[in-house]
Amino acid sequence: MKILDLKRRVLSSLKKVIQTDKTMILGISGGPDSMLLLELLKDQKIVVCHVNYNKRTNSMDDELIVKKYCEINQIPFFVKSIKKHHNKGNFQTIARNQRYDFFNKIANKFHTDILVLAHHKDDFLETAIMLEQTKRKTNFYGIKKNNTVFNLFVFRPFINLVWKKQILNINQLNKIPYGLDYTNYENIYTRNIIRNALLKESLYDKGLLLKRYLKMNKKLILEQQKINETLLLWKSQNYAQEFLLDQKDIATSLIFELINQNFDHVNLTSGKLENIYKFIISNNRTSVYKLDNNYCLIKKRGCLIL
């Protein structure tokens, strides 16, 4: 794929969902994916945000690559540097929260709610495979092209357009600067293990795998329409436990959607959903079910209180 063709397709997809006169926040790590995104959108109304987690010996190199590029092209550039001792605990979750908090602050500064990220087809596959392996209930495998995260409209133009290998080729041909995160290929996270396994697959085989997940998602979308309609009916009946008894075939799906719509980041396994179902339909018509350390489901006189 040639860079001009990719640019045309990216700009076309942007115009379909985003007002062209609105400022876009770009999350740029300095890696090959995000630097290509920056190259394609450098003439648009953009602001660049870079997060330096200081986890690698060459983390500053990435920051300087992005900073220099923005200086040359006169693009507003903001960086958030996170101290090493903040990297303890669940790093992936902590990093995500800090990253989006930073994006939100800069977005508010420029009166926008648009965030553009450089996730690509390989990222989609990694996420889909990881989710399938966990056996958790989901309404989508992979990464959505656009969605709302922490009050930001997030758009990912590469997600259905380009593979990592193609990105590297385009960058090399067009001399686009970038840094490499060597920790991406260390088997320290589940995602890294999946990423390294996918490196051995051909684009053809990855394409077949991608088609499989897209087919699964189409089926999930149709099922989701039914779930949403039934959930509205359940809501109109004050989430009565009797209603759920009549929906045995989709009961856990209804519960999954109900919790996703009303509570943030509650981990839901198939076993947990089954336990919640038993709690709701139990003869004890007034009770409390602990979802996690932050949230509880309350049942009073046979109806859920939300």
UniProtKB/TrEMBL annotation:
Main location as per UniProt: cytoplasm
What gene makes this protein? tilS
Enumerate the residues binding ATP.
S29, G30, G31, P32, D33, S34
Annotated function: Ligates lysine onto the cytidine present at position 34 of the AUA codon-specific tRNA(Ile) that contains the anticodon CAU, in an ATP-dependent manner. Cytidine is converted to lysidine, thus changing the amino acid specificity of the tRNA from methionine to isoleucine.
> GO MF annotations for this entry?
ATP binding; tRNA(Ile)-lysidine synthase activity
CDD domains on file: TilS_N
Query: Which EC number(s) are documented for this chain?
Result: 6.3.4.19
User: Which keywords appear in this protein's UniProt record, sorted alphabetically?
Assistant: ATP-binding, Cytoplasm, Ligase, Nucleotide-binding, tRNA processing
Family listed: Belongs to the tRNA(Ile)-lysidine synthase family.
**Gene Ontology biological process terms from the UniProt entry:** tRNA modification
Q: Does the keyword Transport apply?
A: no
Subcellular location per UniProt equals: Cytoplasm
Pfam families the record matches? ATP_bind_3
Q: Name one GO cellular component term.
A: cytoplasm
Write down the InterPro entries for this protein, in alphabetical order: Rossmann-like_a/b/a_fold, TilS/TtcA_N, tRNA_Ile_lys_synt, tRNA_Ile_lys_synt_N
Q: Which reaction does it catalyse?
A: cytidine(34) in tRNA(Ile2) + L-lysine + ATP = lysidine(34) in tRNA(Ile2) + AMP + diphosphate + H(+)
UniProt free text on domains: The N-terminal region contains the highly conserved SGGXDS motif, predicted to be a P-loop motif involved in ATP binding.
What's the source species for this entry? [Mycoplasma] anseris
Where the record annotates domain tRNA(Ile)-lysidine/2-thiocytidine synthase N-terminal, the positions are: 24-196
UniProt cross-references to PANTHER family, sorted A to Z: TRNA(ILE)-LYSIDINE SYNTHASE-RELATED
**Could you identify this protein by its name?**
tRNA(Ile)-lysidine synthase
